[in-house]
Structure formats: structure tokens, C-alpha cells
Design a protein that fits this description.
With 156 residues, this protein is α/β, with parallel strands linked by helices. It has helices at 14-28, 40-52, 101-104, 121-132; strands at 3-9, 33-36, 62-63, 74-77, 89-92, 109-115, 138-144, 150-153. It has one domain: 3-Layer(aba) Sandwich (Rossmann fold), CATH 3.40.50. The protein is built from four helices and eight strands, in the order βαβαβββαβαββ. Strands 3-4-2-5-6-1-7-8 form an eight-stranded mixed beta sheet, with helices on both faces.
Length: 156
Amino acid sequence: MEDFRFYHLTRHPLEHALPRFLEQVTGKAGLKVYLKCPDASSAETIDCLLWSYDPASFLPHGRVGEGREADQPVLIGWDDRIPENGAQVLVLVEAAALPDPETAGHFRRGAYLFDANRPGMLEAARAAWRAAADLAPVRSYWQQQERGGWAEVREQ
């Protein structure tokens, strides 16, 4: 993994920001994603969100175990795996655990989205930040802007 980016949701909750984030990664950047949730229940919730977030839009995706995994631009799961879709980006949500270093090595980039307004998320993100030092040579911190975009925040 080349770099691991932490995205701090400050303006919009995950339910609003995640679909647009994934649209940017898969559409604009043209990369495939493995979206890791903490468990099967949250993976199902995210799956439903991606089907319903915008009636005028469609974000192709699927869940692990539903078939055609290799064809999915966004594959949603809850365990450490080398995804069949050849994902270059690992996206972690809802304080999902970081992968082991061997699994992380199969991805080009990692992204950890967190909403510090939700209980326990800031602490989980801080722990993940420290642990991510073992997964990628570069870590960066991005903060949501007023209109929903992202800006990198560098140490002063």
C-alpha cells in the first residue's frame, strides 16, 4: 500500500458523504474499491444505502457472497480478503478494523472515513492512525469542506 488517507467527516454524515466519495474514486479516478465494514449487518446497511441514496444516480456495487464479485467496481465486505474485483483501494467505514500488513499490501491506497460526532469514532480513528503507520509509508489527514469536498490538513 502506497498511502493511507484518513477522511474526517465534519459537515455531512457518512450516509451522505460515502456515496459521493465512492463516485469520485470509481468514476473520476477509475479505481475499484473493496469497502470494508465492521460486520455483515453494517455491510447490508451500506449496500441498501448505495441502492437508495439518489434516485437519479446509480453506483454499481455488490456484496461479498452475492456472486459476480469480480465484476463489481465497489465490493462490500466485512473481513480481510484480497477481493476478487481486483480493488486498488481499500475503504474502511464504521471503525472497521485495519487489515493485516500482508492483505494491505494488495491495495494501492487505503481510506478510513470517520465521523467524530458519533460515539467512539474519534478514538477509533486515532488508534487506526497509529496502526496505519505499519501498513503504508505515507499517511495523510483530510477534512470535509463546507460544500462536501475534501482538503488535506497538514501539520503546522
